[in-house]
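ok so I'm stuck.
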Amino acid sequence: MTSYRITTSGQVTVPAEVRRRWKTREVQVEDHGDHLVMRPVAEDTIEALAGIWKGRLRMTTDEARALIRRENAEIEDRKLRRLYGKP
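replied:
not stuck anymore, here's the structure
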């Protein structure tokens, strides 16, 4: 276990080795009263979720991204049609 100093602005440095291993620039911190738990937040959520569903997921991450883009485009189209009254 290693101790780290908390700056006067409340910051703690996460060692470069850990940041590289986690492959992220964002963390989630949980306060458990007498201790904190720090977990990496995935920068690529789809890629992170794909690992969870490995073997059960029926599409590649590229296919999942394309599906999400299509769904988002459809949502935007519906919003614009409602806004401007186009069928």
